[in-house]
Amino acid sequence: MQSLPGPAPGAAGSRRGTAGLLTAPAAEIMRILHDTGAPVFLTVHADGRRRYRYWQAFDPRTGRGSCYVALPTAECEALLAAGRITLGDPVADPARTTYRVRPVRKPTAPARTARPRAARAAA
Known about the structure:
The chain contains three helices and seven strands; from the N terminus they run βαβββαβββα. It is α+β, with helices and mostly antiparallel strands. The N and C termini lie far apart (about 65 Å). The N terminus is likely disordered.
């Protein structure tokens, strides 16, 4: 398996103190999760080892791909603990259990309903 490429140049020290902002590796993981062409999976092996991975399609421009790419487990676990990603239904066999990993979609706010004119005039 290939590892996830490191952060972009100049992204060193990009850890943010604000809870709502992501580190550079976490932001890259979220970008991959939102790409429907690259499904992400968590495999939990019988010995308890956890591995997050996705399939990287072949890129003829770079000559790379056609392989599974490992994602940083610590960053993925932090996203899971923070409620930013969710696990799908388990698919189990004797040696491992595999889950589909998806980003958590924020619910949309309910549409505001306009008050009738009579109620606005009385207010």
